[in-house]
């Protein structure tokens, strides 16, 4: 259902932090013109933590309308309250999304049984295709392979975004559930190798800055063309690293602003990219041939 380079879309803001819907329209068209295979709206990279409920759904609705069915749209609808996640997921489905991305509940550190019941409850309440999202570095909770295997039996759980940073974990997932759900890398730096070994795509921060190259790398990897995929990925290595030189999405928003697509707005407690980090990101953009 979903594959290839799926951008974890930034949410453009004006300098005062207000949402910038004109820039959002430009970003959507930028990605479609450059081959992005799907758009993920209002995930972690989209600053979901600082958008209020109405803003969250408004961004999703506007992305769906602007895309107009040309590529899939996936909405980030996770929360650390199961009831809230159900409400967000239902509203996103009503807005017309093709799927929802649901992060592991953060801060409250549920057990593996709690994770299973959380995701089962959402899937049973809202009949939209759903992608699990494991990112223990942000949530302080790591969804284990056995839990994913249990959840893979639920019909509308169609995928997993795995961002544990481990190729060994990714290998285990391919062996355990790769025939039942689609697996997507949440780590740009190991996405190429993950796709060459059974993953179906990447939900990517790098794609915000280099969408064409990410699309072409993913296509080559999914076609089994290791040489081409690795050659493209080599030029992207600097971005994979420097877009996390400070907390995501700080560097990504700075880089996209350098491309002239958005203003520099970002919401507290995040702050604009430090002056001392800017040259490293700029050099990575040169290496990736985007400036």
From TrEMBL:
A GO cellular-component term linked to this record: cytosol
Compartments it resides in: Cytoplasm
Pathway recorded for this protein: Amino-acid biosynthesis; L-lysine biosynthesis via DAP pathway; (S)-tetrahydrodipicolinate from L-aspartate: step 3/4
Site feature (L-lysine inhibitor binding) residues: 49, 80, 84, 106
Protein residues bound to pyruvate: 45, 203
GO molecular function, one term: 4-hydroxy-tetrahydrodipicolinate synthase activity
Keyword Amino-acid biosynthesis: yes
UniProt xrefs under HAMAP family: DapA
Family as reported in the entry's similarity comment: Belongs to the DapA family.
Oligomer and partners: Homotetramer; dimer of dimers.
Protein name: 4-hydroxy-tetrahydrodipicolinate synthase
Gene name for this UniProt entry: dapA
């Amino acid at each position: 259902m979903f594959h290839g380079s799926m951008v974890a879309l930034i949410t453009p803001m004006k300098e005062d932090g207000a949402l910038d819907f004109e820039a959002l329209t430009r970003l959507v068209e930028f990605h479609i013109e450059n081959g992005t295979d799907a758009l993920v709206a209002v995930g972690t990279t989209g600053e979901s933590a600082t958008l209020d409920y109405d803003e969250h759904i408004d961004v999703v609705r506007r992305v769906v309308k602007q895309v107009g069915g040309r590529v899939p749209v996936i909405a980030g609808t996770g929360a650390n309250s199961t009831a809230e996640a159900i409400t967000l997921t239902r509203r996103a489905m009503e807005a017309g999304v093709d799927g929802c991305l649901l992060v592991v509940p953060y801060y409250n550190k549920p057990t593996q049984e709690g994770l299973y019941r959380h995701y089962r409850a959402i899937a049973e309440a809202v009949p939209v295709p759903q992608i699990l999202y494991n990112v223990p570095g942000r949530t302080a909770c790591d969804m284990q392979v056995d839990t994913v295997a249990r959840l893979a039996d639920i019909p509308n759980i169609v995928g997993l975004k795995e961002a544990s940073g481990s190729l060994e974990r990714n290998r285990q997932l391919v062996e355990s559930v790769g025939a039942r759900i689609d697996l997507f890398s949440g780590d740009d730096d190991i996405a190429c190798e993950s796709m060459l070994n059974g993953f179906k795509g990447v939900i990517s921060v790098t794609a915000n800055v280099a969408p064409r190259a990410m699309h072409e790398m993913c296509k080559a990897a999914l076609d089994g063309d290791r040489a081409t995929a690795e050659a493209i990925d080599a030029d992207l290595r600097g971005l994979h690293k420097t877009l996390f030189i400070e907390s995501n999405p700080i560097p990504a928003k700075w880089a996209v602003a350098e491309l002239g697509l958005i203003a520099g707005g970002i919401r507290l407690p995040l702050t604009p990219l430090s002056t001392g980090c800017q040259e490293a990101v700029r050099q990575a953009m040169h290496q990736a041939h985007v400036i």
